[in-house]
Amino acid sequence: MVPADDHLIDLDSRFGLRDLLGLRGSAAWLFLLILEAVVALYMMRNFGQSPFWAALVSLVLMLSACALVTAIPVDPLPIPVALYAAAAPPIATALTVMTPEHDLVHETVWTAFASSYVLAVLVLRGRIRTAWVGVTAVAAVLVTIGLIGGHLQPGTLVGSLVPVGTVTAISVFTAVMRPMQRSLRILREDGMMRAAAEATMAAADGERTRQLSRLDRVARPILERIADGVELTAAEREECRLLEAELRDGLRAPQLVTDELSGAARGARGRGVEVILLDDGGFAGVPQWVRKRVIDAATKELDAINAGRITVRVLPLGRHVLATVLATAPDQDRRTEIDTDGKVTTITD
To answer: Per the UniProt record, which residue ranges are transmembrane (predicted)?
Structure first.
């Protein structure tokens, strides 16, 4: 036996026949509305042939089964839902056929006709075996009632065969469509992988362009002077030191590099403060206003410190504290924490 392809099995769980037929979104709700209307029209005939309570309970069972087999977004359907959808038709059939108000009920087994639609949709949702259990149960109920009555009437035989024929047709259709379904799954997966690769390349290219543009803007003038062989003054050498630190910030903490924070970091370094910016990726998925709050808190601390050392760090993903700003000055130490909700907490030692 050839082993199953785990990759294709994984695709099966995410792309079912429901997707192939386009039963998603508004189309799925339209399909549900039509299915409910058809089943209700069949079930309404029972109100003239069975007791009101039995017809009403049967109607509720069938309509709820229709809603579940259509609205649940998971393929194949969860087992509890599938079992309910398979059990509702034989129970509804038994209620309407076993409690007749006159003898003609055996000639018009309308619930069996409605059952064929519910069980057919159950096949489309990936529960073929469960649907056939429901078909067998409906047929067993009708044949048993016919035997108890002493003879099988034509209506009983027709009612027992309708779900069999409908579910057989849908089962054959499902088997025929399976190769196409698998091919579309593979094409869809390939398309998603290509789109992800293109998005990654576009993001990398955009970041590279941004970094080159920034490097050209801030470093070109001083690099041209060095290339010309001009002897740098003390102020220009200090400018080189600050520029090197800024470029290092762009590599260590690209998400922290803004005009506001970079300017504050440059000013602090010019006053002799050691500034370290670190980014461990915690900004991913964080709202922009929370990120700005981190930038504002770091800028405030950088503007306030005149000596010592300050470290601004964005923590890794999955932590409640998003970023920390640790300012170590000769007179006191101050730690500022910003959590993922944007709350700022300052602790002074």
So the answer is: 21-44, 50-74, 81-98, 104-124, 131-152, 158-177
